[in-house]
Structures are given as structure tokens and as C-alpha cells.
Amino acid sequence: MNDINVGQKIQEYRKKKGLNIRQLADLVVVTPSLLSQIERGIANPSIHTLKLIAKVLEVPVFNFFLEQENTKNLIVRSNHRKKMILPESEHLSYELLSPDLNGAIEYALMKLTPGTQSSEALMEHLGEEAAFILEGEVQLYLNDEIHILSKGDSVRIPPHIKHKWKNTFDQNVVVIFAVTPPSF
């Protein structure tokens, strides 16, 4: 594990809040000199001072100890996507376009061959979904309504709206969608 510069993290969050050192020091009830030394790594804050700083900056204390994310883990190469092919239909597949499900949003790709659908019954989930038709035409069931979407069309599906995708056409359908929170 690399050394984590708590002072640098405090400085980053302070600047995001638009506070200068004196303003934060006044709100935390420490001297600007001490806060400056903490930010430069010359002095170590007490747990009590860290809690006060976190409260004023409106971040959990543990955020000061998080390592910066390795940017290599943020990229998904097309030949390394996580894929899910459902046992009941080898003609329906999902590919996770996000690196994982740890973020606040999931980004995925769905492929439907002619005559297939995303599910037998209409499904719903807690989160919101947005989708873009990359290829083909598809029927989108939204509650009791059926809509035909074509290449270039998009849709937002609010939470708890029952829906499913059905390819009744003679060409493959590719849909890119985002869901929050992740539920792949």
C-alpha cells in the first residue's frame, strides 16, 4: 500500500467546497497555521480534528484515507467484457461495458437476434434506465404500451416501470443502456 497523504486529501476537499485555509480553520476551530501544516504533511491531525474537518467538508472521514483509483481499472477492452448469455436463450446476450458494478451507474450492451426477447414477463427494477438503439428495430413494452424504436432512438425508463424488449423484426438488435443503481 502506498503512503496516503491525508493533508493533500483535505486540501482537495477544501478546494472543492470553495473554502480557503482560514475559512476552514475557523469552522473547525483550529489555527490556520495548523491546518496549513496538516495540508502540507508537516503536522498530523488528531482523530478529533479529522472528524471536525470531515464534518465541515461534508465527507466521511474514511475518504481522507482512500487511495486514488488505478486508471487502468477504469477501461474495458472490447475483447475483455464480462458477458452473460442466458441459458434459456442463446440468442440474447448482455455485455457489461462498465469495468464493474462498484460505481453508481452500470453501462451495458444487449443483443437480441430476430424472434427473441429480454424476458417472458415484463420486468421492473428500483433504478432508472436509459437506452440507445445502436442497430436494428425493437419493440419496447412499457407497462401496457408497445413502442417501436429504431436505430438512433433512445428512451428513459423511470424506476418501477414494467418493461421488456422484443425483437419481432428480421435483423439483429443492439441496445446500449445505462442503469442506476447497477443491477447486471
Automatic annotation (TrEMBL):
One Pfam family, short name: Cupin_2
InterPro entries listed in its UniProt record: Cro/C1-type_HTH, Cupin_2, Lambda_DNA-bd_dom_sf, RmlC-like_jellyroll, RmlC_Cupin_sf, TransReg_Diox_bact_type
Source organism superkingdom: Bacteria
Keywords associated with the record: DNA-binding
Transmembrane segments: none
CDD domains attached to this UniProt entry: cupin_XRE_C, HTH_XRE
UniProt-listed PROSITE patterns: HTH_CROC1
HTH cro/C1-type domain span: 10-64
SUPFAM superfamilies noted in UniProt: lambda repressor-like DNA-binding domains, RmlC-like cupins
Name of the molecule in the record: HTH cro/C1-type domain-containing protein
